[in-house]
Structure formats: structure tokens, C-alpha cells
Amino acid sequence: MCNSFNKKFLDEASKMYEQNDDPINEHEMFMSMAIDLAKKGMENEEGGPFGCIIVKDGKVIGKGNNKVTGTNDPTAHAEVVAIRDACAHLQDFQLTGCTIYATCEPCPMCLGAIYWARPEEVFYGALKGDAAKIGFDDQFIYEELDIEISNRKISFQQISRNESIKLFEIWENNDRKKPY
Ligand code: ZN
To answer: How do residues 125-149 score in pLDDT, each as one tens digit?
Structure first.
């Protein structure tokens, strides 16, 4: 399934660039696949103008486009969808040695997801300022990170610390745990 997926996309991308005189490198070719996914996602009314491709050893192992409105999932950003797809494909919770191609500079949520997934590198297309110009502004989230927790726009209140800390003891004492 992965091979036919790869072949189809590689064929399409190659065709696209046969008509283009500009030199094309592998990174731009994978980015063009991510851009294509974003376009198709918009056409299918799945979500916003964002796409993502994840590559390992020269092969596409994960793909995603924004599906926030189509699936009523505010976390279904292209990068998160692609990370889930790639991890399911690899049967691993880490993207060791992988390259992520995102059509836009990742938002704070996706940045966090990328750090948890631990890929090798990330290539991004549009800048976050470009996305902000059409209303996808995540600057306020960055600003919230620097604000005292009690002053944030969404109320955060601390309760039940001792009971919650007990979970960590259970984890630490579990010999069968899979550290990550
Ligand atoms: Zn995001």
C-alpha cells in the first residue's frame, strides 16, 4: 500500500516537474506533494490550506492535510495527521530518522507534536506571518506561553496535586513500562 502510494505521488510530482525548467531537488519534490495534499483537502472541504508529508529513507511514510472542520477535530492539523499516519505505518511512537515537509511553519501545537515525535529534520514552506495574514494567527498562543499561568485567557486552576503525583509513583514502580 505504501509503495503504490509512493509511486502514484512520485509519478505525479515527476510529471508536474517535467514541464518545469527550474531545477528541482528532492526536498522541493516532497514539498510539492504536501502542497498537493493541501489543495485536495481544500477541494474536498476537509479543512484549511495546509499539507504535510513525512519521509524516511527516501520513501513517503506519512501524509496529512488539515482536517479540522471536516472531522470536527481542532487537533487535526496537517502535521498531527501526518505524524499519526507515519507512526501507524512504522508501528513506532518515534519518527527517528524521518524528515517532515510542512507547507507552513508549524503552529505551537504541531511544534510540540514534532518535538515529541523526534524526527531528524523539518522543512517548511510558508512562514507563520504569511498564515497570520489570512487569519491563521497562532501568535497569541506563543504570547500565552510567556504569561503567568493565572493570567492566561483560558482559566487554568491547580487542584489535587498529591493524588495526581501518585500516578508518577505507579509509573516509576512499574517494571513493565515502556519508557519514551
Ligand atoms: Zn498546527
So the answer is: 999 999 999 999 898 898 999 999 9
What is the C-alpha to C-alpha distance for residues 37 and 64, in angstroms, rounded to an integer?
A: 7
List of long-range contacts for 6-14, beta carbons under 8 Å, 24+ apart = 6/59, 6/60, 9/33, 9/36, 9/60, 12/36
How many angstroms does the Cα of residue 102 sit away from the middle of ligand 1? 10
Collect residues with CB below 5 Å from ion ligand 1: 77, 107, 109-110
Catalytic center residues: 79
Alpha-carbon Rg for the chain, nearest whole angstrom, is 19
The model's pTM is 0.86
Tell me, in angstroms, the distance from the centre of ligand 1 to residue 160's CA: 31
Per-residue model confidence as pLDDT tens digits over 68-118 = 999 999 999 999 999 999 999 999 999 999 999 999 999 999 999 999 999
Q: Cα(70) to centroid of ligand 1, in Å?
A: 16
